[in-house]
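2024-03-11 09:14:02 INFO queue: dequeued item CubicO group peptidase, beta-lactamase class C family, len=356
2024-03-11 09:14:02 INFO validating residues
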Amino acid sequence: MYKAIFAIGFLFFGLPLISVAQDTTAIDRILAAYNGENPGASLLVVQDGRVLLQRHYGYADLEHKQPVSATTNFRLASVSKQFTATCILQLVHQGKLAMGTTLAEAFPGFPAYGNTVTVKHLLTHTSGIPDYEDYVADTAFNPQIKDQGVLDILMKLESGYFKPGTQFRYSNSGYALLALMVARYSGQPFAAYLQQHIFAPLGMTSTLAHEEGKTTVPVRAFGYSATDGRWVRRDQSSTSAVLGDGGIYSNVLDMLKWDQALYTGSVLPIHWIDESFAYHRLAGGGTVGYGYGWHLKQTKDGHKAVYHTGSSTSFRNIFYRIPSRRFSIILLTNRNEPREEDMLTLAELIAEVLRP
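2024-03-11 09:14:37 INFO prediction written
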């Protein structure tokens, strides 16, 4: 049996839990697959700065029967991109680089196809930069590719997918390059910059960009893949050491602190946060439903939702926010299912159950 963690009136990092009149058993039904002796899930729902609901299911470590809890740290995968984007925007705000800074300026000797690729193109996935994962075998573990290795791959190519700014095509490469830009223009390694300028100021004491051999993830969830009817630990892939596109580990408590900071401008001025949540235009006039590290969409009742899913080897996550309602869902899991796009469906089902 799983242990549902849910309290009323308890002060939690200064945020009081509130009574949920809705049928919370519906949430347990939606997330039933994570229950029992399975890879698990950690759920936190926030309304108006208060914890509306917490649920934790299954195991973070099957071999040692360690249950998922509020302090379990999961690999965020692409949910990491919003932090990479924030680092870049901080540096832009400080005048250390510009949204129009090109790859040729940032990385001398970059091939000609990068001459017109800008920071903004990288942030919005409109750069046309090829995805490095197409050039890395999944069996290439010795050593795993890192952010610098992504640049090395791109330096050997002769062209991108399309003229920058004319199309949207999601590319993890762009965010690896952005992480390298953070290091180049700040003078600090990317992981250290994150720690000093985002995680420490917000009190996100368990969150880190994990570098094997250098750092240890506390209370770590390990990833599992369904294989021949059983769960097999498959925590890493050949690309898991790249930081800028998906290398951050965190838990729902720390992500709650991040969620609330997005309303206050404490680590980034509000106008930059607003622009991060804005639709952007393509050169031909089309609209891009992606801001700076955030997917964008409209809810059924007309509110803007900003979210990001995360999918890497044996992790599936979503951070889903409706800023106008001050409503957020943080759902972190350590298994290789469902499909990444289905995490959005899960979040929207949960939102529908809890909608006031």
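2024-03-11 09:14:37 INFO annotate: Residues 172-186 form the longest helix (15 residues).
2024-03-11 09:14:38 INFO item closed
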